[in-house]
Specification:
- This protein has six helices and no strands.
- The protein is an all-alpha fold and about 120 residues long.
- Helix 1 packs across helix 5, helix 3 runs parallel beside helix 5 and helix 4 runs antiparallel to helix 5.
């Protein structure tokens, strides 16, 4: 698995855990890096779930959108609310892994104040 995919998977999991206030990953909520890693395997011809690349990509994108919407329900500063709204608007135009990774990175940066425990230390 390439470095870019591993990094994107970790960022995705971190975003989902932050949005749902989780301390450990939870695949049922989509808060598991393996959701993102599956894209890599599908693109290499290994589709064990037989979902197809675009179906899996859109499921991940929907998870990211729901996570951002969850964060918008928290107590945020005005600049954080505006930033998250912009990321949501930009996600409408994202249809590749790199664009999704950029959106996730921006969301994590905007919501860095909401990080808890070890995540807060690793983010700074």
């Amino acid at each position: 698995m390439d470095h870019e995919t591993r990094e994107a998977g970790l960022l995705y999991e971190q975003l989902m855990m932050r949005a749902y206030h989780l301390r450990i990953s939870d695949p049922a909520l989509g808060a598991d890096r393996r959701w993102f890693y599956l894209l890599y395997h599908i693109s290499r011809g290994v589709d064990l779930r037989e979902t197809g690349y675009m179906v899996q990509f859109l499921a991940i994108k929907d998870n990211v959108i729901e996570a951002i919407q969850m964060m918008q329900q928290q107590e945020l500063h005005l600049h954080e609310r505006i930033g998250l709204s912009r990321v949501l608007q930009e996600l409408d135009l994202v249809y590749n892994e790199h664009g999704l990774k950029v959106a996730i990175e921006r969301t994590l940066k905007i919501t860095g104040r909401l990080a808890i425990g070890e995540e807060a230390e690793s983010f700074r």
